[in-house]
From TrEMBL:
Protein name as catalogued: Acyltransferase
Family: Belongs to the transferase hexapeptide repeat family.
Family matches, as InterPro entries: Hexapep, Hexapep_transf_CS, Hexapeptide_acetyltransf, Trimer_LpxA-like_sf
Matching PROSITE patterns: HEXAPEP_TRANSFERASES (PS00101)
SUPFAM superfamilies: Trimeric LpxA-like enzymes
Region of interest: Disordered: 210-230
Organism whose genome encodes this protein: Streptomyces seoulensis
Compositionally biased region (Pro residues): 216-226
Superkingdom to which the source organism belongs: Bacteria
Length: 254
């Protein structure tokens, strides 16, 4: 039999919940890292309007990490340069992130040697990028104790990296590449390609001579006409299918 609701207790629980949310919102705002509010972090560079959301993941080696402008680094994102904290990595940056990059929640970028992410790349959540791989040459030594192999990683500008993708050491990803969710990428990926699978392979590619091959199954999105306001788009979205058809018919009639 359900217990009778205590109005006072319910009100008190609701007030406590609102207080917790308010405090957490304050912590997220105050804990975010920006160029003007770097906290304890001393990045090699952090551009205008770039923001690392709170709570952060593991961050170390930040003097060898450069972040471009207008980047969004989601919650719990790990950014590391070097095998461990407090190493002297020399005069040059190890991890370079270009302007306008978005790293989704829970992603990891592990740069034990050079990792470069070009401008305007978008990562879904839980993407893993690493320049280091374990070696297992000695069958008698635990793998975790063997010296790892390191190869630079380069991700070209304008790429979309899907949720849960893994970018392995030595990967060279071209310009405007789509990496499907869960793909495991190694080696070289050409410009304007779509890759999927583990290991990832090219499943579609664009060239000036042939366009997209295989051809796209859906038409390209049509951008709104110039001069259309957000309010007008909102009003259009609220119309039902019959109203949209009537408008299209009136437009066709002149």
């Amino acid at each position: 039999m359900p217990k009778p609701e205590n109005t006072f207790t319910s009100w008190r629980q609701g007030l406590a919940q609102r207080a917790v949310h308010a405090v957490w919102g304050w912590a997220q705002r105050r804990g975010a890292v920006t160029a003007g509010q770097p906290g304890r972090f001393r990045f090699g560079a952090i551009g205008e309007a770039t923001r690392l959301a709170f709570p952060l993941g593991t961050v170390f080696g930040e003097p060898w990490i450069t972040l471009g402008s207008h980047c969004i680094i989601g919650e719990q994102v790990t950014l590391t340069a070097g095998l461990m904290p407090d190493l002297d990595l020399g005069p040059d940056p190890i991890l370079r992130i270009g302007d306008g990059v978005v790293l989704g929640r829970g992603s990891h970028v592990i740069a034990d040697t050079t990792v470069t992410i070009g401008r305007d790349c978008y990562f879904g959540p839980y993407v893993y990028v690493t320049s280091t791989n374990h070696s297992y040459d000695d069958p008698h030594e635990p793998i975790g104790r063997q010296w790892p192999r390191m190869e630079p990683v380069e991700i070209g500008p304008g790429c979309w990296i899907g949720t849960g993708a893994v970018i392995l050491p030595g990967a060279r990803i071209g310009r405007n590449v789509v990496v499907a969710a869960g793909a495991v990428v190694r080696g070289t990926v050409p410009d304007h390609a779509v890759v999927a699978g583990a290991p990832a392979r090219v499943v579609r590619r664009w060239t000036p001579e042939e366009g997209w091959q295989p051809p796209l199954r859906t038409p390209a999105p049509v951008p709104p006409p110039a001069g259309v306001t957000g309010a007008q788009l909102g009003a259009l979205a609220a119309l039902d299918e019959e109203q949209v058809e009537q408008l299209a018919k009136l437009d066709a009639e002149g």
